[in-house]
Amino acid sequence: MAQHDSRLAGRLLAAAAAVPIRVRYLLAGLTMGGTWAFLNTPLPQRALSMSLLFLVAPPVLHVLRAHLTRGQDRSLQPRASLTRFFGAKAVLVALALTGTWLLQPITPQAPLLIGAALVATVGVLGPLLHSRMLVRPSSAALVVT
Questions:
Q1: Where in the chain are the domains?
Q2: pTM score, two decimals?
């Protein structure tokens, strides 16, 4: 059973790795923008909900990936920096909050406009900035003993 699980995990990781990075960021942008646009709550509660979502999802995905790749040597591969992702997402929430707050007196469609802006921002800038979100292995990890 454990061997079957490891083969399944390997196939899942291979399938996920086959999805181009642009598509992954577009899906993330659609999730973030759609959540911002269609979450029908007051603005402070919306910002808090999105912040919690952004803070909970990456560590859960990180733990899941670590569980699925257990037993594989990943010491030489770059890995995602949770701190950098948290910082980028905090900036996104702050900009979305500010933008919605500024647009609300002008148009009732402010959350929809900001949601579309989140989709565009994450979809376009995500792939461009992805390499800056990774941590390279330290030189100590590269030394073969």
A1: 21-136
A2: 0.75
